[in-house]
Write a structure and sequence with these properties.
By secondary structure, the chain is an alpha/beta fold. It is built from eleven helices and eleven strands. A hairpin with a 2-residue loop joins strand 3 and strand 4. The two termini are 24 Å apart.
């Protein structure tokens, strides 16, 4: 396999051939929400009521909005809360505490989200695109190609649904709260920059205008789109940045992650370090360990050397046992090889934690359910 240049317009993401999703309340700023309700003949304060129901009570149902007159709620919900996601299939693992959901969007496009509940915290992995155009060699989503970007509301709806399920006690462990969101599902988040950042703003905005989450508990992942990484560093929102590196040398990384032919390993690491310098937030380096491909001890040494060359204390490494995709020649590293890789990184003083790979028995890798249904 050889890498091919990837050209992406970060300033104006395309919706793809299926068109733009219908307008949703969440797509609007607080000021635009007031304008929208007044255009429907309602008083401006209805916008705050709707926001409270959506972001605090986690509902978009007219029947639940009993503090609004029935005629008003039917009109407002009918115009401002179109159904964007339809649950098609749900699979569970780990005693029901890992929940993977396949969603159909308004136009039939398919995306996935994964909710993982741990003692003391709950993490949701969300999708930002239907498919992905970056064609990483070992990724199920990459094999689908890019259908289109998701809208802000389509992304936020994944979060609201998970938060609602936790609050309602639908996940084993009793009623709970969603504490963490990671943009590590289908798609390259920074290739859908505008919608992803608007989603982040909805997640961290205080109630009732948003979900009131801590920016530190929101992780945005990227394969290394350097201009967008630098742009993210200047947003003033201290989310966690995760750089999916997967190889420390350009020759292999260009094969595994074709975007490397545009922005090299060193350019991506430099940008990640700039993010740390501007935000003070430690960066996560994601590294899928693939048997006999990128799991060599010398590559762990090279990675450690490159990270340390930028300074100390700015990075954390997450080796990830590969979740194999059906029909792929890629598979996870031998456990002993994985242990040696981790030991080499730690010997360089790099804080290293092997990622907990939940959901392997339910096609845990992002894109597998969507690809299976498409087939």
């Amino acid at each position: 396999m050889t890498g091919t240049p990837v050209t992406l317009d970060l300033s104006s993401p395309s919706r793809g051939p299926r068109g733009k999703p219908p307008r949703h309340f969440v797509d609007l700023t607080p000021e635009q929400r007031v304008a929208a309700v007044t255009e429907l003949g309602e008083k401006p304060f209805r916008a705050k009521q709707l926001a409270t129901h959506y972001f605090t009570h986690l509902t978009a149902s007219a029947d639940a909005m009993t503090d609004l007159p029935k005629a008003s709620r039917d009109r407002l919900v009918g115009d401002l809360f179109p159904q964007l996601l339809t649950k098609v299939r749900t699979m569970t693992a780990d005693g029901g505490t890992t929940v993977k959901t396949l969603w159909h969007l308004f136009d039939g496009a398919k995306v996935e989200s994964v909710l993982m509940r741990y003692p003391g915290r709950s993490t949701l992995c969300i999708s930002s695109q239907a498919g992905c155009g970056l064609a990483c060699a070992f990724c199920a989503t990459g094999k689908m190609g890019l259908l289109r970007n998701l809208s802000t509301a389509e992304i936020v709806e994944q979060v609201r649904e998970a938060a609602r399920a936790l609050a309602a006690g639908e996940v084993p462990g009793g009623p709970g709260r969603l504490t963490n969101v990671v943009f590590m599902g289908m798609g390259e988040p920074l290739a859908n920059y505008k919608a992803v950042m608007e989603t982040v703003r909805r997640l961290v905005a205080p109630a009732p205008d948003g979900l009131g989450m801590s920016a530190r508990n929101v992780t945005v992942s990227t394969v290394g789109m350097v201009p967008a990484m630098d742009r993210l560093a200047d947003e003033g929102i201290p989310v966690t940045l995760a750089l999916s590196l997967h190889a420390p040398d350009d020759e292999l990384r260009s094969e595994l992650v074709p975007v490397n032919t545009r922005w090299s390993v060193d350019e991506a690491i430099d940008s990640a370090h700039r993010y740390f310098e501007r935000t003070g937030r430690r960066v996560s380096i994601e590294y899928a360990l693939i048997r006999d491909v990128n799991d060599h001890a010398w590559r762990a040494d090279l990675l450690g050397e490159k990270l340390n060359a930028r300074g100390k204390g700015w990075v954390h490494c997450n080796p990830i046992p590969l979740n194999p995709v059906p029909g792929s020649r890629w598979t996870a590293s031998d456990p002993a090889v994985e242990q040696e890789f981790v030991a080499r990184l730690r010997a360089h003083g790099i804080p290293t934690t092997v990622r907990d790979t939940r959901g392997s028995e339910i096609d845990g890798a992002c894109g597998q359910l969507a690809a299976e249904e498409t087939r």
